[in-house]
């Protein structure tokens, strides 16, 4: 009987240990950011920028990778595309055949001379005809001296190593490097592409949502898939249901309906009403940049004004945004913008063009 009780105790302990391990794995799986959990692993899974992906698929089929410069807005799949290409080319050798350095790493001239150069010199067993790949994320933040040193490294080790530089603006990369690389340009994702991906993630995670909630996420993301997935996960974590109200609570942007009311008052020439609405919005705590940025997005899709008037409104909002970006972020800028928009509505767009 003693041995039987010992066996029962042992089996109970083993079962509880297994349960603890499984619960820890589930917690770890649950804690993964959706941006990483649903990051595409192959080129076929990458969303948007089809013209650019066709070129990358051709490179993957050929096997001979040129040096690459991938430029475009954040969250459009630049770094993800390079990693997917590297996986397809290197297979099981991906882990030791790829070096990635991002903006959080020191990437001065010493790193180029030491870390990058030593990786390029190392002998690694790769599939026949394949090259090591060095990925430099946000390469436009590298100093000019580091880029000059990198240019020489690219020449010396061109037989064994290829470089992929991801950046927001390709003109910040020095011309000698630009001439040695193929430039691939990425654009912002369309609303439909972001929407399809959001719906897929919601199905995988069993998220309950409303259509206006997903539309609100698309509105706040502005074609940035990373931003869209982060906003979706934040809304689900905070409220468990994705609708318009919850999304704007989490994203903490001025509500488009409120901004639309201000623009409607301006179009109708109701200066006092527009000023009161703007002052109320300002007192809720939003910054001038947030308010003007949302005004620009709402005005761009506003259907209550003609095309000429819309262009003049966008022009005035853009000038105000520029002044705020230069550091003049005061309520006076917002009130001045409202007054100018109301004046435009009264005089018509032609008067502004003549000036």
Automatic annotation (TrEMBL):
Pfam families in UniProt: AAA (PF00004), RCF1-5-like_lid (PF21960), Rep_fac_C (PF08542)
InterPro entries in UniProt: AAA+_ATPase, ATPase_AAA_core, DNA_pol3_clamp-load_cplx_C, DNA_Rep/Repair_Clamp_Loader, P-loop_NTPase, Rep_factorC_C, RFC_lid
Top-level taxon in the UniProt lineage: Eukaryota
Domain AAA+ ATPase: 64-199
Bias type Polar residues, positions: 20-30
Region (Disordered): 1-34
Location of this chain's protein in the cell: Nucleus
A molecular-function term among this protein's GO annotations: ATP binding
One GO cellular component term noted in the UniProt record for this chain: Elg1 RFC-like complex
Entry's Gene Ontology BP terms: DNA strand elongation involved in DNA replication
Protein keywords: ATP-binding, DNA replication, Nucleotide-binding, Nucleus
Low complexity: compositionally biased ranges: 10-19
Similarity-based family: Belongs to the activator 1 small subunits family.
NCBIfam families associated with the record: PRK00440.1 (NF001679)
Name recorded for this polypeptide: AAA+ ATPase domain-containing protein
Native source species: Discostella pseudostelligera
């Amino acid at each position: 009987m003693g041995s039987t009780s010992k066996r029962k105790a042992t089996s109970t302990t083993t079962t509880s240990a297994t349960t603890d391990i499984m619960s820890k794995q589930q917690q770890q799986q649950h804690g993964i950011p959706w941006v990483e959990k649903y990051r595409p692993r192959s080129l076929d899974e990458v969303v948007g920028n089809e013209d650019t992906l066709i070129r990358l698929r051709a490179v993957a089929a050929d096997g001979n990778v040129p040096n690459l410069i991938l430029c475009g807005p954040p969250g459009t799949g630049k770094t993800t595309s390079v990693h997917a290409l590297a996986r397809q080319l290197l297979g099981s050798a991906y882990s030791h055949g790829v070096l990635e350095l991002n903006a959080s790493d020191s990437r001065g001239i010493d790193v180029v001379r030491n870390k990058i150069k030593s990786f390029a010199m190392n002998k690694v067993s790769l599939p026949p005809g394949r090259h090591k790949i060095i990925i430099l994320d946000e390469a436009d933040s590298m100093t000019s001296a580091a880029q000059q040193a990198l240019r020489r490294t690219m020449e010396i080790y061109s037989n064994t190593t290829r470089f992929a530089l991801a950046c927001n603006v390709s003109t910040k990369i020095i011309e000698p490097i630009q001439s040695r690389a193929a430039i691939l340009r990425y654009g912002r994702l369309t609303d439909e592409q972001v929407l399809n991906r959001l719906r897929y993630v919601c199905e995988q995670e069993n998220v309950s949502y409303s259509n206006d909630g997903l539309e609100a996420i698309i509105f706040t993301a502005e074609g940035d898939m990373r931003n869209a997935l982060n906003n979706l996960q934040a809304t689900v974590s905070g409220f468990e249901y994705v609708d318009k109200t919850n999304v704007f609570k989490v994203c903490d942007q001025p509500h488009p309906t409120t901004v639309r009311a201000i623009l409607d008052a301006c179009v109708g020439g109701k200066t006092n009403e527009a000023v009161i609405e703007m002052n109320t919005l300002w007192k809720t705590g939003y910054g001038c940049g947030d308010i003007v940025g949302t005004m620009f997005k709402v005005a761009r899709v506003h259907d209550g004004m003609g095309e000429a008037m819309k262009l003049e409104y966008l022009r005035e909002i853009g000038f105000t945004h520029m002044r705020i970006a230069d550091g003049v972020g005061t309520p006076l800028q917002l009130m001045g913008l409202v007054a100018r928009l109301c004046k435009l509505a009264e005089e018509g767009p032609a008067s502004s063009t003549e000036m």
